[in-house]
């Protein structure tokens, strides 16, 4: 492995520590090397805090070494003032001569300007080291910037015979989830929720399961809850409108007197492309990623409009024989298969 690739891989590795906390900022990793030794490293702080380059420079004990050091970053250093000053300016201030960048930042306020600023200041800049790996790492941010929509993850659990929900006769009178997977798989789902900005479900899922859509089995920030409720059937007895978590409801009801306080209502036309309208609205809400957990109609809507990036599908070992059949995805690439005790998890990418 070439030396630049080695350190960019380390940047990607430490940047993962920011997953679920940095958005809408990208989760960047930065490593500073002096004479083949790492003297400082950092990753993007939770939104509003210092960027990766700042944290890496602050971690260097002897700042005099920076003049002869190389800084590695997964994404082009920013060149504009936001909640924090430009990282390119900080690199120039400390006279770091060599900068190695994995990927250009497509954000309109950066888009090569950070690289140009560094070059104009006399820095030697190398761009495109492990670019594909950096694109994969920054997939949420890049999808948001390049496609003007959130990164979309489909998730469901299905039985060995291909059902995602049982027939009504198998359910209890109390509205609660009907589990197909084991405890460890369910905990993994809560980890995923903590990693994404939002979670989306349809009306039928709420009415049948009364889910909380939180991360109670993991440590992290609860995602914004997004609910499809065309006719406002979901009343205050359901967890999703308990106002404990930021909640957005898509509806076609324009009568605001039926809206609940502290809940965001966004009207859309349910007779047209629903998934496209939701993606546009979430983009305007600055939501970069969403995990869609059901139900069948909601999942199939996004599949039909080809608005999804990943599918995470659990297969349990139980049999329902009758019930709601699992969604169907025609074109997909299997990325990975995991065994979680007796559950099987298949991870797919959209072709």
TrEMBL record:
Q: Which molecular-function annotations from GO does this UniProt entry contain?
A: 5-amino-6-(5-phosphoribosylamino)uracil reductase activity; diaminohydroxyphosphoribosylaminopyrimidine deaminase activity; zinc ion binding
The record's annotation in CDD domains points to:
Riboflavin_deaminase-reductase
Positions annotated to bind substrate: 193, 213, 216, 293
> What cofactor(s) does the depicted protein rely on?
Zn(2+)
List the catalytic residues: 53
What InterPro entries does the record tag this protein with? APOBEC/CMP_deaminase_Zn-bd (IPR016192), CMP_dCMP_dom (IPR002125), Cytidine_deaminase-like (IPR016193), DHFR-like_dom_sf (IPR024072), Eubact_RibD (IPR004794), RibDG_C (IPR002734), Riboflavin_Biosynth_HTPR (IPR050765)
Location of the CMP/dCMP-type deaminase domain:
2-126
Q: Which UniProt keywords apply?
A: Hydrolase, Metal-binding, Multifunctional enzyme, NADP, Oxidoreductase, Riboflavin biosynthesis, Zinc
**What pathway, per the record?**
Cofactor biosynthesis; riboflavin biosynthesis; 5-amino-6-(D-ribitylamino)uracil from GTP: step 3/4; Cofactor biosynthesis; riboflavin biosynthesis; 5-amino-6-(D-ribitylamino)uracil from GTP: step 2/4
What is the cofactor note?
Binds 1 zinc ion.
Catalytic activities: 5-amino-6-(5-phospho-D-ribitylamino)uracil + NADP(+) = 5-amino-6-(5-phospho-D-ribosylamino)uracil + NADPH + H(+); 2,5-diamino-6-hydroxy-4-(5-phosphoribosylamino)-pyrimidine + H2O + H(+) = 5-amino-6-(5-phospho-D-ribosylamino)uracil + NH4(+)
Documented EC number(s):
3.5.4.26, 1.1.1.193
For the keyword Metal-binding, the answer is yes
- Could you tell me which SUPFAM superfamilies the record lists for this protein? Cytidine deaminase-like, Dihydrofolate reductase-like
Pfam families of this UniProt entry? dCMP_cyt_deam_1, RibD_C
> Which amino acids does the record list as binding Zn(2+)?
51, 78, 87
Q: What are the GO BP annotations of this UniProt entry?
A: riboflavin biosynthetic process
Q: Which residues bind NADP(+)?
A: 157, 179, 205, 209
Q: What does this protein do?
A: Converts 2,5-diamino-6-(ribosylamino)-4(3h)-pyrimidinone 5'-phosphate into 5-amino-6-(ribosylamino)-2,4(1h,3h)-pyrimidinedione 5'-phosphate.
NCBIfam families the record matches: eubact_ribD (TIGR00326)
Family membership noted in the UniProt record: In the C-terminal section; belongs to the HTP reductase family.
Q: What is this protein called?
A: Riboflavin biosynthesis protein RibD
Supply the source organism for this entry: Cellulophaga algicola (strain DSM 14237 / IC166 / ACAM 630)
């Amino acid at each position: 492995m070439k030396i630049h690739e080695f350190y960019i891989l380390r940047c990607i590795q430490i940047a993962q520590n920011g997953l679920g906390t940095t958005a809408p900022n990208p989760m960047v990793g930065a490593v500073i090397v002096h004479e083949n030794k790492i003297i400082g490293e950092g990753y993007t702080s939770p939104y509003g805090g210092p960027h990766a380059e700042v944290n890496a420079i602050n971690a260097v004990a002897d700042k005099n070494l920076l003049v002869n050091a190389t800084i590695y970053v997964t994404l082009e250093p920013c060149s504009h003032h936001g909640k924090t000053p430009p990282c390119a300016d900080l690199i120039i201030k400390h006279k770091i001569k060599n900068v190695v960048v994995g990927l250009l930042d497509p954000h309109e306020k950066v888009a090569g300007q950070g690289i140009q600023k560094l070059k104009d200041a006399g820095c030697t800049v190398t761009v495109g080291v492990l670019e594909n790996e950096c694109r994969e790492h920054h997939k949420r941010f890049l999808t948001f910037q390049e496609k003007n929509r959130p990164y979309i993850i489909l998730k469901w659990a299905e039985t060995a015979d291909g059902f995602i929900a049982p027939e009504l006769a198998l359910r209890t009178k109390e509205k609660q989830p009907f589990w197909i997977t084991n405890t460890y798989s369910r905990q993994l789902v809560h980890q995923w929720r903590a990693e994404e900005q939002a979670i989306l479900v349809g009306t039928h899922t709420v009415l049948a399961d009364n889910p909380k859509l939180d991360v109670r089995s993991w440590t992290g920030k609860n995602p914004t809850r997004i609910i499809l409720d065309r006719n406002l059937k979901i009343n205050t007895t359901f967890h999703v409108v308990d106002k404990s978590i930021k909640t957005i409801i898509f509806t076609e009801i324009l009568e605001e007197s039926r809206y609940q306080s502290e809940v965001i209502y966004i009207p859309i036309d349910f007779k047209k492309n629903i998934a496209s309208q939701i993606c546009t609205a979430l983009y305007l809400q600055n939501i970069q990623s969403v995990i869609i957990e059901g139900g069948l109609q909601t999942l199939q809507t996004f599949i039909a409009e080809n608005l999804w990036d990943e599918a995470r599908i659990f297969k349990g070992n139980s049999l329902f024989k009758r019930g709601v059949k699992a969604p169907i995805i025609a074109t997909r690439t299997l990325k990975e298969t995991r065994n979680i005790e007796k559950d099987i998890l298949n991870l797919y990418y959209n072709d």
